[in-house]
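We treat protein structure as text, and this decision shapes the records that our systems exchange. Such a record has a labelled line for the sequence and another for the backbone structure tokens. The record that follows is passed on verbatim for readers who wish to inspect the format:
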Amino acid sequence: MTLSELIQAAQIARPKAFGSINEKRSVAIVQAALAELSKTIKNTKEGEVAIPGLGTFVAKKVKATKEGEETTRRRVIFKAQKAKKKAAITE
């Protein structure tokens, strides 16, 4: 999925959220948000970066063996937020 396809899908799903913003401006806004998210994740040595409504990025150091030599690498794992269950209506 490209960024433009993502924006188009979001505009179809929630047209009121985008109002009269054109697609070019929407792409610029999403790119800026993703750039800030990326910068925050890169600056997190170990720990979590939680984005409500999306999920959590977990940064941690892991040991890896490459060509018989043990090294430490930084790994980032994304955990999607579980969908909220809709409340059952009881009468």
Q: What stands out?
A: Residues 23-43 form the longest helix (21 residues). The chain has two domains: 1-43, 44-82. The chain is about 40% helix and 30% strand. The beta strands are 47-51, 55-66, 69-80.
